Amino acid sequence: MEIGHHLKKARESNRMSQQEVAELLGISQKTLSNIESGKTQPSVVQLAEMGKIYEIDILDLLLKIGIHFTQSPPQRNRS
Question: For residue 31, which of 4, 1, 67 has the smallest C-alpha distance?
Fold first, then answer.
């Protein structure tokens, strides 16, 4: 399933309209519609804000759709 579908379900679970969420994100309703329909991808900042608005863990959502993260190796001091 696409990330937009999950974001739409989260919005609907919170009983919010696209217009309400778009205003909170500072984007147009059409842009949010495009994200939810999979026509465009949300930015990292938009994803983080949607996580706050919908009270969901975005990292868990990304794992659900098959995006996995690994930890970066520790940085070496170059002194």
Answer: 4
CATH code: domain 3-64 is 1.10.260.40
* 8 A C-beta contact, residue 6 and residue 38: no
**Which has the closest alpha carbon to 4: 28, 30, 39?**
39
Contacts of 56 (CB under 8 A, 6+ apart): 10, 50
> Where along the chain do its domains lie?
3-64
Which residue do the tokens 């974001």 mark?
7
At 13-26, the pLDDT tens digits run 999 999 999 999 99
